[in-house]
Amino acid sequence: MKVLIIEDEKTLAFEVEAFLKKAFYLCELAHNGKKALEMLDLNLYDFILLDLGLPDTDGLILLEKAKKLNPDAAYVILTARGNIEDRIKGLDLGADDYLPKPFSLPELQSRMQAIARRKFGIKNESIPIGEFEIDLQKRTVSNANNEVELTRKEFDLLSYMLLHKNRVLSRMQLSEHIWGSFSDDDCDSNYIDVHIKNIRKKLGRFAAVDWLETVRGVGYKIKKQT
Amino acid sequence: MKLLTKLTLFITFSKLIIVLLFVLSLPFLVEQIASEYTNNYLVQQKQKVLDVIEKNGIDYYLQGSDSYGSYTLLKEEYIALEAIDEDFKIDTIENSQRIIEADTLNYRLLMHSFKTNNQEYLLEIGKSTATISQYNKPLQRIASYVLIALIILTLITDLVFTRFLLQPLGKIIKSKLLNRKFPFRDNIPPVKTSTSDFKYLDNSLIALMEQIHDAFEKEREFTANASHELMTPISILQNKIENLMDDSQLDELLQERLVDMQRTLNRLKKIVRSLLLISRIENAQFARLETYNVKELLNSVEEEISHRMEERNIQFDIEVDASTNWQNINKDLIFQLIYNLVNNAIKYNKDNGKIIIRESRGNPYQLTIEDTGIGIAEEDIAAIFNRFRKVGGGETTGYGLGLSIVKSIADYHQIQISAFSDPGVCTRFTLIFPENIISIKN
């Protein structure tokens, strides 16, 4: 997947690039609107991450122009402005998602993944993990032919960790994914433990869940299977 | 006491005193006038007599005899002329008694001696004092009536005029102070008045309100800009930490420290976000056009937060009818408002406690959110809506912005919010809604 990161804050652009690279995205950077339009004119991208607060161009106008040059790409707006009108306007102009700064990188990747599934119709929805199959489309977990019943939040949690396989996710990152801006770190971290416990219990009835590891003092990760 | 009342009282009293003085002094005045008039009259009569004598000679009156006297029918006036000794000189006006046909009468008497044909004569002209004062009483009475009538007339005009004069004051206070909502965003034109004092007051108030508004505006702008500027570095930091955590070379200890940093950063992020939200609400950046079914709203709040209630075994009671809707509101903000209040009710509750949300469809419509929690000390109640004020001891979480957000959202929707607490027993938040928000639909 080819990604264009349009962001004037270079450090931030590099961090996003570094993170997405590990997930095998090919990233290119543009630090202003003019450069971005030049690049959009020459290349086709799958994803365009757009900061609205560019020094030379209004982000929303850039979005309109970019849409003409690169109509099939998925657009994700990243902004520190974060006011509701921008969000609505952005989505009206055809942006696929909107992430207010500061955002978490795993969250960004998960949103991009969701867009990819929706927009590019990636069909390989059934992901094997241990002795389980996880279907992101149907939102089911099964072992052999037995379906494991998970609550909505439990499934969200599991699929989020699965997407970030082999990466340690802190309780905070997990609770922010589940509860969004309503997450309350000091108190919700414990609920993540409760949910993980439930997931382990429910899956454990069918097969081993040793792939779901607790990282002491940090959080959880799904181990890559060898 | 009102200025108008004070002025009225002063005007009335001062007029009454003047009237009283005048009425009391009226008899003396009238008497004075009458006596002066009589004196003049007597002097005029004397002059006439002297003129006649000069023209026609003394014999015109005396006709050979050495004295002459004449009086009117009722002896009200009399005139006498007689020859006297050479040495006797007199020219006076005085009150004196005279006996006329056996009647002793009081007269105002002019006596004047003069010489003609080598003989001294004495002229006496008298006017009975009874006739002098006969007009005094009616005069006094009429004067008093006229005076009272005039006083009443001026009193009424004074009152009407004072009322009219003071009208701008009421208008200024109403339009500039009472009917205005902080932060005085709207410009209100000066009150029309020709009284420069009121103009001065009005302009001073306008200037003062503008100052307050500017100060508020600056603070709001600062909060918005500062929060916005803070977001970018926070963003960079957060993403750097996330990338670092991904590094497989990291040992456990380092990873734990990174999580600690993440937690602190998260705290910072939340504070900045909350400040930004408050500043946006105060800047009226949210539309208020949506309608929310209250039961539905409370159910989604419950769904969002039930895990926290379950953990502490807190019972959640919604006593709200399904037909209640709130209109002209912003859904996201109202959700946040209720969410924050319920979240607080959980945070400061006891295990196995209760949260009751109840509506009362009176006029005005009210919604109460009550918990069976630790409560808030009386001295803290007034400060709970202030920013960064932590209530209920230092151990509990939250950074004092939850209730500030609640207050901003309530203010933004013109919902009145108040808190009541019985420490150790319960805390109750009451939301009083303006009429235009409530809509009952079946």
How would you characterize the overall build of this protein?
The complex is a heterodimer of chains A (226) and B (442). With 226 residues, chain A is an alpha/beta fold. Chain A is built from 8 helices and 12 strands. The longest helix of chain A has 20 residues, at 185-204. The two termini of chain A are 25 Å apart. The model of chain A has no long low-confidence stretch (mean pLDDT 86). By secondary structure, chain B is α+β, with helices and mostly antiparallel strands. Chain B is 53% helix and 21% strand. In chain B, a hairpin with a 2-residue loop joins strand 4 (103-116) and strand 5 (119-128). Chain B has helices spanning 3-56, 59-62, 129-132, 136-178, 196-245, 252-282, 294-311, 331-347, 378-381, 402-412; strands spanning 67-71, 77-84, 91-100, 103-116, 119-128, 290-293, 315-319, 324-329, 354-360, 366-371, 416-422, 426-432, 438-440. Chain B is rod-shaped. Classes of the chains: A alpha/beta (226), B alpha+beta (442). The interface between A and B is large, with 43 and 40 residues.
Quick synopsis:
The complex is a heterodimer of chains A (226) and B (442). With 226 residues, chain A is α/β, with parallel strands linked by helices.
Record the SSE blueprint:
The complex is a heterodimer of chains A (226) and B (442).
Chain A (H helix, E strand, L loop, with lengths): L1 E5 L3 H13 L3 E5 L2 H10 L4 E5 L7 H11 L4 E6 L4 H9 L4 E4 L4 H15 L6 E4 L2 E4 L4 E4 L2 E3 L3 H12 L5 E2 H9 L5 H20 L7 E4 L3 E4 L4
Parallel strand pairs in A: 1-2, 1-3, 3-4, 4-5
Antiparallel strand pairs in A: 6-7, 7-8, 8-9, 10-12, 11-12
Helix pairs in contact in A: 2-3, 6-8, 7-8
Chain B lengths: L2 H54 L2 H4 L4 E5 L5 E8 L6 E10 L2 E14 L2 E10 H4 L3 H43 L17 H50 L6 H31 L7 E4 H18 L3 E5 L4 E6 L1 H17 L6 E7 L5 E6 L6 H4 L20 H11 L3 E7 L3 E7 L5 E3 L2
Parallel strand pairs in B: 7-9
Antiparallel strand pairs in B: 1-2, 2-5, 3-4, 4-5, 6-8, 8-13, 9-10, 10-12, 11-12
Helix pairs in contact in B: 1-4, 4-5, 5-6, 6-10, 7-8, 8-10
